Amino acid sequence: MKKINRFDMFIYVLIIGNIIAMVLESHEFIQIEFSKAFYYFELISILIFSFEYIYRIVTSYKENQWVGVKNYVFSFFGFIDLISILPFYLKQFVLLDGRFFRILRLFRLTRVFKLGRDSESLKLFIKALSAVRNELKFTLFLSVLTILFSASAIYFLENKAQPEVFSSITSSIWWATVSLATVGYGDVVPVTVWGKIFASIISLVGIGIVAIPTGIISASFVEEIHNSKK
User: Fold this and answer.
1) Residue 103's pLDDT is what?
2) Which one, of 191, 7, 227, 21, lies nearest residue 114 by Cα?
3) Domain 133-229 belongs to what architecture?
4) What 3-state class would DSSP assign to 168?
5) How far is Cα 161 from Cα 148, in angstroms, rounded to an integer?
6) Which residue stretches of the chain have pLDDT < 50?
7) How far apart are CA 162 and CA 80, in angstroms?
8) Regarding the domain with residue range 2-117, which homologous superfamily does it belong to in the CATH classification?
9) Disulfide: which of 82, 142, 165, 220 matches 132 by Cβ 3.0-4.6 Å?
């Protein structure tokens, strides 16, 4: 157990080091000065994370044969372990647009989730989400449906007044999304009377749309906490 604990602690420190390196690397003058150091640190980290991934697969096989491997690979942390190393190998062996790999580099942030591998609170939260996944799927469907309806309505209400802004239903989806999320950036706004009235109604509806999944998750989380204490 001590060896496993020490290994996990080493992995946690390495993850924190990777996050710090990624933040520092975003500064151009630091990236230019220490580009080789960042590359080799990333390479060593990937090799260690790859070893960890293989180690956990082997351990899962020893514990429960192929069923254990399947449970790990398709688990939340198994998925996190894979996508935290996969972009690096894709960059080495697949010839794709460099911009695509810059986006893939964002997946390095998923390594932070590995810190919660032994967190009972995180496991409890994941269990709570799994318990209400059908309800969350319905709220997601409801949200998408409401966004499409809002985008369609605002398009017909505002297209003549702002043809360059609300040029199509597709372009109106951005406005519908930020309005329903009650973010309201203000970069796209209705100018007609009926458009403003509709926007006011949709903003109020958005509060309810956001509150539904929040309430479902909160209730499930509280229930799981009570069950765990029992």
Assistant:
1) 58
2) 7
3) Orthogonal Bundle (1.10)
4) coil
5) 20
6) 1-3
7) 44
8) Voltage-gated potassium channels. Chain C (1.20.120.350)
9) 220
